[in-house]
C-alpha cells in the first residue's frame, strides 16, 4: 500500500475533504490508542491548512487527543465501510477497536498516532487550543497529508470503476452512500460575463 501513498501539497490538503466524506479519527497517548468514526469534519483554512472535527467530550478519543495534542484523520473507502460502521458503533473505553478488528496501521510521519491502511487519504493534525473545544469542536492544523495516487493525483479525485476505492458518506443506521462520478460544467453567465 505504501507505494500508492503519495504526499499532498499542504496548501491543497483541504481539497481532500471538500466533498464531505465520513472520516476516521485515530488517537494515541501513553500506550493507549483508539479509532472512531466522525461525519462532522470540514476544511477551515488554506495556509496553513486547518480543519475542524467534532469529538464528543465523553469519548476516549477526546481524552487521548486532549492529552497528546494530535490526531490522525483518514478517509475510508466503500470497501472499508463495515469497519467504519464498527468503529463508529462501539466505545473505545470498553474495547481496543484497532486490535479487536485487526486493523492494519502504519506510523504517522510527524505525530505519534497510528494511521489506518484501507483508506485513501490521511491527515496528520495538531490541535489548535481554542474556546470552541467547549462545544466539542476541535480546531487543528494539518502538518502532513498524503493520498492514494490510484484515486487522487494532480490535486483532484479521480474515482474509477472500482467502487470499493471510492470514499463514502454516512447517512444513518447502517446506511452509507459512495461518492459518485465527477462532471464538469462552465459557469452560467452573469451580466454577460462568465
In words, what does this structure look like?
- With 194 residues, this protein is mainly β.
- It has a single domain, classed as Pnp Oxidase, Chain A (Roll).
- 11% of the residues lie in helices and 38% in strands.
- The chain has three helices and 14 strands.
- The chain has helices at 60-68, 81-89, 97-100, and strands spanning 5-7, 23-29, 32-38, 41-45, 50-54, 70-76, 105-107, 114-116, 119-127, 137-148, 152-153, 156-157, 168-172, 175-178.
- Strands 1, 2, 3, 4, 5, 6, 9 and 10 form an eight-stranded antiparallel sheet that branches. Strands 7-8 form a two-stranded antiparallel ribbon. Strands 11-12 form a two-stranded antiparallel ribbon.
- The longest helix has 9 residues, at 60-68.
- The chain starts with a strand and ends in a 16-residue tail after the last strand.
- The mean pLDDT is 91.
- Its cofactor is FMN.
- Its EC number is 1.5.1.-.
- InterPro entries: Flavin_Rdtase-like_dom, Flavoredoxin, Split_barrel_FMN-bd.
- Residues 15-154 form the Flavin reductase like domain.
- It is an enzyme of class 1 (oxidoreductase).
Amino acid at each position: 500500500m505504501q507505494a500508492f501513498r503519495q504526499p499532498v501539497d499542504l496548501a491543497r490538503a483541504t481539497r481532500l475533504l471538500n466533498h464531505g466524506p465520513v472520516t476516521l479519527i485515530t488517537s494515541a497517548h501513553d500506550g493507549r490508542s483508539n479509532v472512531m468514526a466522525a461525519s462532522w469534519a470540514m476544511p477551515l483554512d488554506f495556509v496553513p491548512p486547518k480543519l475542524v472535527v467534532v469529538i464528543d467530550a465523553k469519548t476516549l478519543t477526546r481524552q487521548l487527543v486532549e492529552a497528546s495534542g494530535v490526531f490522525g484523520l483518514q478517509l475510508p473507502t466503500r470497501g472499508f465501510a463495515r469497519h467504519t460502521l464498527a468503529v463508529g458503533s462501539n466505545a473505545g473505553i470498553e474495547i481496543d477497536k484497532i486490535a479487536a478488528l485487526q486493523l492494519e496501521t502504519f506510523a504517522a510521519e510527524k505525530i505519534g498516532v497510528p494511521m489506518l491502511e484501507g483508506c485513501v487519504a490521511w491527515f496528520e493534525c495538531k490541535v489548535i487550543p481554542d474556546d470552541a473545544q467547549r462545544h466539542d469542536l476541535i480546531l487543528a492544523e494539518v502538518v502532513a497529508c498524503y493520498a492514494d495516487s490510484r484515486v487522487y493525483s494532480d490535486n483532484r479525485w479521480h474515482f474509477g470503476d472500482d467502487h470499493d476505492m471510492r470514499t463514502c458518506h454516512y447517512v444513518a443506521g447502517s446506511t452509507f452512500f459512495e461518492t459518485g462520478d465527477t462532471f464538469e460544467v462552465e459557469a452560467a453567465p452573469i451580466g454577460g460575463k462568465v
